[in-house]
Design a protein that fits this description.
heterodimer; A: D-Maltodextrin-Binding Protein, domain 2; MetI-like fold; two-stranded antiparallel ribbon; 6 strands; B: Rossmann fold; six-stranded mixed sheet; 10 strands
């Protein structure tokens, strides 16, 4: 009887374990699926809001405009139609809130019931006008030419240099600046963290007295546990002013500040894993080298580092992989200007910082929302690639 | 003072509070093979490691008394330990080639000594591999990884690596204990051959091996050198009852 009870209990435990692990794995898969479903929607969205239209005179030779051209026209960067393939006439802009400049309230009707006709009339009389207005006011017998809504293209998304997700009439979702910003900050972090991390790992793993080691190692592991916002705060209060002063800049929020903060954050991971790799070098190899008359440093450089090379590389990839996805600290210190940086002393904007800063303001399901999810996909792919690389580089444990 | 290759005088060694070697007085003449035998933990490996100061790697080791190589005191302040280790080669219990090519394994000792002349290195590597009786087996694959060799080949490679630095004394810490009988036989032949140019001290658990290869045998027990004489004497007519029990297999 007792045995039977135990068997049933074991079965139940087994069932709980099975279902919990299944649920967890499924949840992870669903999250990834959700990320991709939302993010890929960006390529079926249009840069001009679907509830609005862009219209020109019916005889205007221009049949369609790219997102950038629209942006240029409404920013007054483009002033003449011939710049976008039309006649040599200056472009007249019209948006719906300028209707009062052309017609008085009586003409439009008390409930704006004549508005569609008036817009139609306005465009018919102005061959050089481009009008941007809600769908709602498009007259049934519109005489002008409605420009088609362009879908956001892959090259426009990846190679576009302008990130103006909320600009009207055409939002611009070029993520090149964000990708480059992320890469710059990451590259800087690697350049800083690589020498420091390696030297520290060698010191702790090989050179330091065991008593020093037992002091340093927990201290560095402790660094990994500090919330990233604290690092960001430290960066904002200490590093940013320091950079501003040292390089005599107008603002200290630069790629360099982000790189330094990220390097500090990646160091605990890098040092801990690299030092573990260094210490896995078999004593027999160390002794063989020393017994041949090699000095301690020759042994480190010629035997220990080559032996632990793959572990050290894995340490750096993991550290940097963590740094790439890091959000808060970077958001606080990099200045977040969506420009392509040419030096480390300019503000940059990274992918995670963009998502964090803008998701709250992006309307659910809108184009901006989808664009941010697409950024999430890119981040996911980058970190996934890094982690996969580690799987291949890191020495197998079973050996 | 007589010309001994290796000598200790009233040598004591402590790991912290534990005394691992007790008042050792020992010497070995040039071009002889001495076998250190005794049960595990008797101090024979520790004494071996005194001569190339490998005990330096362990924290809390203290020594009193004197140990000499060619009348030089090994623990003297003026001795540079890496110079000492070039004179005193060591072969370990388990073959421990570097995860490098066969060639680079043998060239390692030369390179860390600052030799960069390629012709010189090449000649010395080939010569060392020949001396270690490994040449015929590896001559076509010097660029291959040393890890691809068999255990016995690896151990001979380690001996070649040691020979390349041209030591005068070679310490062997159970060099054949991890090998099969055929490989062991090859190593023993090699050791016997090397006697012509080197002084060798070999630690072994294998009585037959000690009997086969060595000129002298020293029996250690609990950190003390119990008896030390010509090998034939130790194995046929030992003075000490403990030695007799050990070599006849009554304990150990």
């Amino acid at each position: 009887m007792k045995r039977r009870m135990r068997k049933i209990l074991e079965k139940i435990t087994e069932g709980i374990l099975f279902s919990s692990s299944t649920v967890t794995s499924l949840a992870v898969l669903l999250i990834i699926l959700f990320l991709f479903r939302e993010g890929l929607g960006i390529f079926t969205s249009t840069s001009v809001d679907r509830n609005n239209v862009l219209a020109v005179h019916s005889l205007n030779p221009v049949n369609e405009l790219t997102t950038q051209q629209i942006g240029g026209i409404f920013n007054r960067d483009i002033l003449y139609w011939d710049e976008v393939g039309g006649t040599h006439d200056s472009i007249i802009l019209f948006t719906i809130n300028e209707i009062g400049n052309y017609y008085n309230e009586e003409e439009l009707g008390t409930d704006f019931e004549f508005l569609p006709q008036k817009i139609d009339e306005l465009i018919s009389h102005q061959p050089n006008m481009i009008a941007y207005f809600p769908n709602l006011y498009l007259a049934g017998n519109f005489h002008g030419k409605v420009l088609p809504h362009n879908k956001i293209g892959i090259s426009e998304f990846f190679a576009g240099k302008s990130w103006y997700p909320t600009s009207e009439p055409a939002a611009q979702f070029g993520i090149l600046t964000l990708i480059l910003g992320t890469l710059w900050v990451t590259l800087g972090a690697i350049l800083i963290a690589l020498p420091i991390g390696l030297v520290t790992a060698i010191y702790i793993g090989e050179v330091a007295h065991p008593r020093m080691r037992s002091f340093f190692k927990p201290l560095i592991e402790l660094l990994a546990g500090i919330p990233s916002v604290v690092y960001g705060f430290f960066g904002l209060v200490i590093i940013v002013p320091m950079i501003q002063k040292t390089f005599n800049l107008a603002v200290g929020e630069t790629a360099l500040a982000g790189s330094i903060v990220l390097a500090i954050m990646a160091l605990p991971v890098i040092i801990t894993i690299a030092e573990d790799a260094i210490r896995t070098t078999p004593v027999s190899l160390r002794e063989a080298s020393l017994a041949l008359g090699a000095s301690h440093w020759q042994t480190i450089i010629r035997v220990i580092l080559p032996y632990s090379r793959s572990g050290i590389i894995a340490a750096f990839i993991l550290g940097i992989g963590r740094a790439i996805g890091e959000t808060m600290a970077v958001l606080m210190v990099t200045g977040n200007a969506a420009m392509i940086p040419t030096t480390f002393l300019e503000p940059v904007r990274t992918i995670p910082a963009t998502i964090a800063a803008e998701l709250g303001e992006a309307p659910y399901g809108g184009t901006h929302f989808k664009a941010l999810f697409a950024l999430g996909i890119i981040l996911f792919i980058i970190t996934f690639a890094f982690n996969t690389m580690v799987e291949f580089i890191r020495p197998r444990k079973s050996k | 003072m007589p010309e001994y290759k290796v000598e200790t005088q009233n040598f004591n060694l402590f790991y912290g509070d534990f005394q691992a070697l007790k008042d050792i007085n020992f010497h070995a003449e040039p071009n002889t093979i001495t076998a250190f035998i005794g049960p595990s933990g008797c101090g024979k490996s520790t004494l071996l490691r005194v001569f190339n100061r490998m005990n330096d790697l362990i924290d809390g080791v203290k020594v009193t008394g004197k140990a000499f190589i060619d009348n030089m005191e090994v623990n003297d302040r003026s001795i540079r330990v890496d110079e000492l280790r070039k004179q005193v080669g060591m072969v370990f219990q388990k073959p421990n080639p570097f995860p490098k090519s066969i060639f680079e394994n043998v060239a390692f000792g030369l390179r860390v000594n600052g030799i960069s002349d390629r012709h010189f290195i090449e000649e010395r590597v080939v010569e060392s591999i020949r001396k270690a009786a490994l040449w015929d087996e590896v001559k076509d694959k010097l660029k291959k990884s040393a890890m691809e060799l068999s255990g016995g080949q690896q151990q001979r490679l380690c001996i070649a690596r040691t020979l390349a630095v041209e030591p005068s004394l070679i310490l062997m810490d159970e060099p054949a204990s991890a090998l099969d009988p055929i490989s062991t036989g090859k190593i023993e032949d090699l050791i016997f051959e090397l006697k012509k140019s080197y002084t060798i001290i070999i630690v072994t658990h294998n009585m037959q091996q000690a009997g086969r290869v060595s000129d002298y045998t020293a029996f250690f027990y609990l950190g003390a050198l119990i008896e030390w004489d010509k090998t034939i004497k130790i194995f046929t007519n030992p003075t000490n009852i403990q030695t007799q029990h050990y070599v006849t297999g009554k304990f150990g």
